[in-house]
């Protein structure tokens, strides 16, 4: 039986299939210096994260390919490990043929246009079925899964798209949800109670049935982003994966979960299994996005029944707690659409890494009325329980640069007049400053100039035409220029 999400649409003949490999090849061709291959053996137990951390200290997020990662079993893995595939806005923008500034808005636009639908193919045509391991053949510790931070209890799946189907309509749901490798065939997950996979878990619990579940790992970032779009419940994420990547997502029936449990045919790995509602075991502490360890808890247990993978499959891993570029970009589009409804003059939204990619929102508006900033603040703060602080700035402020947003706060706001504080809101349990009972305080700053006609000093400038004419390369020389030290020449503080 085929699920309702699969409305077959002919795959155009000769079309390049979107997968992780096609992305790597295209990205490497476009940005050869931003892809770094490490050929020496290196341990997935902290050593790979140390490399990621050193790059983060430099504020650089190259796509790293570790060709000889050492696994939890102590062997050099036959699978390479990719890190930072979605490591920064440039890669996300490249994946969906957008720009640094517009990537989050274009991501959302493609979701709402919904132009492409998934298609089901035969097992024999699916690359992810090139290798099929079932039952005792499976040992998760053979995969190069990273043990990232010191107090994590072991290796964690962090770029796994956890997929379940709702039992009433059989519609798929996909979300990034962490998985602790607790044994050769046991994963312990975190399904937060608001998540749609958790709603599916509760629905199975009510029916007294185990829940079929799969992780898929390693795919084209556009597919990944599409599958990870914020949607209503139940709504198909396979459909939005198709819409965002601009191509019908190829699906294939599972090996051990039945023909109507569909998984992406062009993923690098699929891990299949069962979650028995109520079966829980200790999971975490885990180094989370706010850069603190989240508490130990009872995690939902995923008993693995099969792994299928491509030949020379590439394992993909997020540096959770180190690199928050991805999470922020996802939030931006939702904030933008909510603010746009009340303040059509909104021009850009940025959720910066300085707020752990969740807590701060910088909102740029073309101000025409002094009431707009407060409307924008209220809309942004209510768009997601994650957003704690909204700062509204004028059009001349670059919202992608914390320095300029802070300059606007410094010179365009007076806090007795321009600050809004909203106590007792939903807070994130992973934000250590959130109070008891999960209540947090939200707030906003209007860091805009008065609406026109205004009396406000004019910002300094050097004439544009002179700036364009005088280049450093011409007057100082490319070679000498490269030797000028970066201003921050000390090691970033841990
Ligand atoms: C890198 C990353 C890791 C995440 N890890 C988890 C997790 O372990 N558990 C969880 O419930 N949500 C996690 N999330 C958040 C969910 O993936 C996100 O809220 C998702 O959109 C929820 O999907 P849903 O709308 O189907 O519920 C993570 C997000 C990111 C970006």
Which key phrases capture this entry?
494 residues, alpha+beta, Pnp Oxidase, Chain A, five-stranded mixed β-sheet, 23 strands, globular, disordered N terminus, binds flavin mononucleotide
Task: Describe the fold and architecture.
The protein is α+β, with helices and mostly antiparallel strands. It folds into 2 domains: 298 residues, Pnp Oxidase, Chain A (Roll), CATH 2.30.110; 122 residues, UbiD C-terminal domain-like (3-Layer(aba) Sandwich). 26% of the residues lie in helices and 26% in strands. It is built from 14 helices and 23 strands. The strands form 5 sheets. Strands 5, 6, 7, 8, 9, 10, 11, 14 and 17 form a 9-stranded antiparallel β-sheet that branches. A 5-stranded mixed β-sheet has the order 19-20-21-23-22, sandwiched between helices. Strand 1, helix 2 and strand 2 form a beta-alpha-beta unit. The longest helix is centred in the last third of the chain and has 18 residues. The N terminus is likely disordered. The structure holds flavin mononucleotide. Flavin mononucleotide binds next to strand 8 and helix 8.
How are the elements arranged and paired?
Elements: H1 20-30, E1 35-43, H2 47-57, E2 63-70, E3 81-83, H3 89-95, H4 103-113, E4 119-120, E5 131-134, E6 156-157, E7 160-165, E8 172-176, E9 179-183, E10 186-189, H5 196-207, E11 211-217, H6 221-227, H7 237-245, E12 250-253, E13 262-264, E14 269-283, E15 286-287, E16 293-294, E17 297-309, E18 315-317, H8 325-342, E19 346-350, E20 360-365, H9 372-383, E21 389-394, H10 402-412, H11 415-418, E22 419-426, E23 439-446, H12 464-469, H13 472-476, H14 478-482
Parallel strand pairs: 1-2, 3-18, 4-12, 20-21, 21-23
Antiparallel strand pairs: 2-3, 5-17, 6-9, 7-8, 7-11, 9-10, 10-17, 11-14, 12-13, 14-17, 15-16, 19-20, 22-23
Helix pairs in contact: 4-7, 4-8, 6-7, 8-9
The site of flavin mononucleotide has 17 residues, from strand 8 and helix 8.
